[in-house]
Amino acid sequence: MMTGAGRGFCAGADLASGGPRKEGASTGENVAYGMEIAFNPMVREIAGSAKPVIAAVNGVAAGGGVGLALSADIVIAGKSASFVQVFGPQLALIPDMGCTWYLPNLVGRARARGLALLGEKLPAERAAEWGLIWQCVEDDALMEEAMKIAAKLAGGPSNAFGEIKRALDNALTSDLSTQLDYERDTQGMLGDHPNFAEGVTSFLQKRKPNFQ
Predict the structure, then answer these.
(1) Most distant CA pair in the chain: distance in Å?
(2) Which residues, listed in sequence order, are joined to residue 57 by a DSSP beta bridge?
(3) What is the tens place of the pLDDT at every residue in 174-209?
(4) Which helix (H) or strand (E) holds 75?
């Protein structure tokens, strides 16, 4: 699970330090270098995790902090939290940390462009209404709700959860017929796992499954 320490979730990159540097490189080359060696690998690691990742957004998520939050599988935010894309209006950059991929896929073209071009804060409640995040809760209930979700996921079939993540990502670049084939092949593989047998047995016995 990811959450912020203090009043905010993540304010984005540390602009004062300038980030990682290569000798003799231009400012832009160093910006790209920092993304290549640090930020992009982090997003890929979180998004590609075989286990579900939860983000508990406890305050403002700004700039790359938005991408960091959205790289999680389940994003839950407190009512005082907000999401803001400062890249274009304030820094003359494009959104990064996966924001140019997450935003249009989650909220559509019009809303993604509005957020990126105007840089206005998106309150957590509206983010939930738009489908950017899973849930918005009272601030004092944030961590309790996040831990409930974590406990539920921890007791589930981790092998199937990893395949669910891959299947949903795969669907973004597949047509229906191709995705149906993908589902068939994956179900065939999962159907031979002991967790499927346990799921069927527990269903018939009307008890909670005990997955591996």
Answers:
(1) 68
(2) 77
(3) 999 999 999 999 999 999 999 999 999 999 999 999
(4) strand 74-78
Regarding beta strands 74-78 and 122-123, do their DSSP bridges make them parallel or antiparallel, or are they unpaired? unpaired
pTM for this structure? 0.91
Contact 33, 21 (CB under 8 A): yes
User: CA–CA separation, 196 vs 209, rounded Å?
Assistant: 10
Residue where the block lists tokens 């918005």: 136
Fold of 2-154: 2-enoyl-CoA Hydratase; Chain A, domain 1 (3.90.226)
Query: Can you tell me which residue has the tokens 């939930």?
Result: 128
Give the C-alpha distances (Å, rounded to integers) separating 189 from 84, 122, 163, 195: 41, 41, 10, 11
In angstroms, what CA-CA distances link 25 with 30, 32, 39, 65, 72? 6, 10, 18, 26, 33
* Domain spans of the chain, in order of start: 2-154, 158-204
Encoding tokens for residue 193?
């796992």
